[in-house]
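User: My collaborator sent over this chain with a note saying "see what the structure looks like." That's all I know about it. Can you take a look?
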Amino acid sequence: MTAMKLVAVSAGLGKPSSTRLLADRLSEATRKQLEPDQPVETRVIELRDLARDIANNMVTGFPSPALSEAIEAVTGADGVIAVTPIFTASYSGLFKSFFDVIDHTALAGKPVLVGATGGTARHSLALEHALRPMFAYLRAVVAPTAVYAASEDWGTGTGSQGDDLATRVTRAGGELAGLMRHGRTTGGVAEAVPFEERLAALRL
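Assistant: Without extra context I'll predict from the sequence alone. Here is the result:
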């Protein structure tokens, strides 16, 4: 059986990065939902390592080999996890620029799970007013649960969104896995699957 390809994009700037940590947790939750019935190849793309390449591409219109390979990994994946830090109530410029250099039709029908990190829960709505509309414009199929992790959420107990981070991560991973599995069973032609059917797949 051909392995599914799951690619997480992390726009974290630091090392270590809470954004990368969230991307890793979402990847693991999704992988667990797919395996052992479906083999999964996972990869995390760190945009901080591609910052200069992305900027050069914005100016010249030509991607470097490293950036081209990262774009191919994202557009060729069965599912994408996109995680950004929140700056001034929206996604980071690095995060937006990466998806700006991808052809605007390349993510059509692709299952995408969005996540974000920030210092305060006040920024959690950026997932709904910034990230989700952007991927909707790109015609991706965005999982219903978006995961925001504030500084307080990395501890124990109830987090900023009313339940603990682990619960939200597990729920979101299950939703993305359902969308990925449904897309694969239709022969990979995700655009031909009505959105209502994709939502129904989450209940399976």
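A starting point for your reply to your collaborator: Confidence is low (pLDDT under 50) at residues 187-192.
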